[in-house]
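Progress against Task 2.4 (sequence-to-structure conversion) is shown through the following example record, which the project officer requested during the mid-term review.
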Amino acid sequence: MPVSEPVVVAATGRFAVPRSGRAVAIAVDAAELLRPGSDLVRLVGGFPEAEILIAADRDARADPDDDDLDRPGEALRGEVARLGLLDLRLHRLGLPDPLPADADEDLVAALSELIGFDPEPGVYCLAPAPDPADPARAAVNRAAERIAQVYGIPLLRYRWPELAFLGAQ
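Structure tokens generated for the chain above:
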């Protein structure tokens, strides 16, 4: 799959998000969003609208009594509100941790639902930088690449928290 100009520019840190853009992001777990120095927060903060799909419930702070899997638990909603991101909608898919080998189909279906049948111009898909050693991140990336290809939308990569944290020092 050829790398589009927005992906290259985003990787170098010189990407300007269009004022009318909308981000549909996917994260393996909430830590990718909540970790100090999160590259995901930096990227979605540049979009007027953003939706983030949390794939797995790795985070023990997820509310086990919240049976609405389309929304995060109350504790997670509070932590995300403290990030100060306006117009951020957070969704929790609730897949088990580790992600099952066949998670791709569930991830693609959930992302498709967030993007919509015929996405308006300016929709971007955000996914973590690939890490072949992490099967969960690999599944998330396969789904994001498929979505970007099928819908013909740009795919932007964000650094996972450990790399973002090291780069901020």
